[in-house]
Amino acid sequence: MPSVLITGASKGIGRATAAEFARRGYRVVATARDPQALNDLPVDQRLRLDVTDQASVDAAVAAAGEVDVLVSNAGGIFLGAVEASPVDEIEKLFAQNTFGAIRVAQAVLPQMRERKGGRLLFVSSAQGRFVLSGNTAYSSTKWALEALAESIAIETSQFGIQTTLIQPGTVSSSALDNPAYFRLPNDPYAGTLAIETTDGSGSITPEFVANAIADTAELDTPPLRVPVGEQAKYALAARKAAPEDVPFTLG
């Protein structure tokens, strides 16, 4: 029975993904900063894992044992114009969304190299390839993750390890509801940021994303990038077609 370790499984995409892999018969190791939040999931192991804490990552991977598939999902978000975004908050977001994802990947790679096989699935975002103003810090963490994961794909293919970036569009999930929004006094950007003018149409459910993740894990030869949902496919195609000498907008 293949085993899958999922980070950030307490809610949203991570929770739906744990349930989907369990339904498909995998040995599921669900992890979260608070493992009690996992008690009602039908999984084999529920472990504490904080992706920003190396000791926590090492302990969880050791307790998980053999990991065939890593679903690196844990992440956060905040909103705000670049000028209004505190640098320390940007650093925290990178620590969780980017460095945390790589920290967990580094922890499972040695056993995958030794076995000459394994799958790394990074939950990125369509915004890992373009930017919506007002959500730039989040996008930046995903842009960086895309580069790091692509490098991992190149470096580890010789060991039979397959790497994929999952790129959902807008997800109708409570996991990231009511994020912090940083504003300047007498906010000069109020009402002008793209993140304030998008209506969320075309949103997909966490279960839709979970199904795409599990389907990708079962492909014989998965692609490097998997856009999830029509919104993501449209936006990424538009980004690819747009000229590079002017800012890209979805409007």
Secondary structure layout:
Layout lengths: L2 E4 L5 H12 L3 E6 L12 E4 L5 H11 L4 E4 L6 E2 L6 H29 L2 E6 L12 H21 L4 E8 L12 E2 L11 H4 L8 H12 L7 E4 L1 H12 L10
Parallel strand pairs: 1-2, 1-4, 2-3, 4-6, 5-8, 6-7, 7-9
Description:
Helix content is 40%, strand content 16%. It has 251 residues and is α/β, with parallel strands linked by helices. The chain has a single domain (3-241), classed as 3-Layer(aba) Sandwich (Rossmann fold). The strands form 2 sheets. The chain has a 7-stranded parallel sheet with strand order 3-2-1-4-6-7-9, with helices on both faces. Helix 1 (12-23) crosses helix 6 (206-217), helix 2 (54-64) packs parallel to helix 3 (87-115) and helix 3 packs parallel to helix 4 (136-156). It is globular, with a radius of gyration of 18 Å. 43% of the residues are buried.
Question: TL;DR?
Answer:
The chain has 251 residues and is α/β, with parallel strands linked by helices.
Number of separate structural domains: 1
Encode the helix/strand succession as letters: EHEEHEEHEHEEHHEH
Q: Figure out the total of helices.
A: 7
Average the pLDDT over all residues and give the rounded result. Answer: 94
What does the radius of gyration come to? 18 Å
CATH superfamily: NAD(P)-binding Rossmann-like Domain
Question: CA-to-CA gap between the ends?
Answer: 47 Å
Query: Which fold name corresponds to the CATH topology?
Result: Rossmann fold
Strand order of the largest sheet: 3-2-1-4-6-7-9
Roughly what percent helix?
40-55%
Give the CA-based shape: globular
The class by helix and strand makeup works out as alpha/beta
Largest sheet: 7 strands, parallel
